[in-house]
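Hi, here's the filled form for the chain we discussed.

Project: internal
Contact: R.S.
Residues: 110
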Amino acid sequence: MDTEKIGDVRIVRLQGRLGEVSAPQFEDRMKEMIEEGEVLFVVDLGGLEYISSAGLRSILSTAKELKKLDGLLFLSDLRGPVKEVFEISHFVDIFRIFGSVQEALEAMPR
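And the returned structure, exactly as it came back:
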């Protein structure tokens, strides 16, 4: 997991796998950033090769936490098997998903 800040938005780039081992780590790190005052996120999934149900739950849990704080979590760069999992699980209907980080940033309210 790699992060950078662009304006008020925290970009989170995921690589490899988001599964049973890495999903809790992702969720814990997201909680830390939220506790530090971050409320606007773009999660770049372009480098993700695999996501399990635990990974989906960690993203959903983070989004629910942000919603309580009037925050936002946008997703970008869904590809291949990860995109298929989002489509099958209907997460594409729950989240705002963009083709690139730049598109997500442009759609983010300031």
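Let me know if anything looks off before we file it.
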